[in-house]
Amino acid sequence: xxxxxxxxxxxxxxxxxxxxxxIHLASDYYDLAAFRAGKDPLRAFERAEIGDVTGRSLLHLxxxxxxxxxxxxxxxxxxxxxxxxxxxxxxAARGLAAELGLTQDRAAFVAxxxxxxxxxxxxxxxxxxxxxxxxLCWLPDIRRWAETAASLVAPGGFxxxxxxxxxxxxxxxxxxxxxxxxxxxRDPWVEDGPGGYADGDAVTVHNRSVEWQHPVGxxxxxxxRAGLRVDFLHEHDVTLFRRFAALxxxxxxxxxxxxxxxxxxxxxLKAGKPRA
Length: 276
Hints:
Blueprint: H1 9-25, H2 32-36, H3 44-50, E1 57-61, H4 67-74, E2 79-84, H5 87-99, E3 107-111, H6 117-120, E4 126-131, H7 142-151, E5 153-164, E6 189-192, E7 208-211, H8 216-225, E8 229-236, E9 248-250, E10 253-255, E11 266-272
Helix pairs in contact: 1-5, 7-8
Domain Methyltransferase: 59-157
Pfam families: Methyltransf_25 (PF13649)
GO molecular function, one term: methyltransferase activity
């Protein structure tokens, strides 16, 4: 149900994510054995849209256990830094980096709130500031996020965002074929359910979560006001999991059947900072 902003939103979310770190590490969803063996969890459109990262520095905001962050290092980034508010997640990411033989000069991880990133990360600017899928819904203030992220983009560098499309939040939960919710909702969505996307049967204690819906226009406007120039906004007809019963698996992703009308399920954007 929708409620006024709860004062405990950050701590509730942190406790939920902290508890789920060991569940995620053991899950088939993240499949750490395959990752250790070289499997790339990055989406093909992300690799294509970001391009060659060889020799560049990359900051990953809200990095969770660091699989995407470390993948960019595998793709040749000279230095990657991951930031997440969950200390267990950051510790797991550091452990994975060590397993891969990446020193802190190549891959560093910081435990801090994303709004405090400018003060928490080791460098003042990065060639690429990256935010992966499923991050923005945990933040109440997108304008503050955009200002923080933009401040960390080096002149001539860019921010890249890949996210679930907020249009999916207005569709009915069962089939994803009917509009049932308000696209412009501003109050947080408070839930209290066990398990999670990586293991729906996991027994969990810290189940309260607080999330926000951010229309695409709000995100783009916030980045523009923060001084970045939007180079592209792409919408994608695929998603990472079977959110709606109507979706079908294909090539490791999910989409509507070819006979059904399509709606955007994810989006990505790139926004650059002009050189001084």
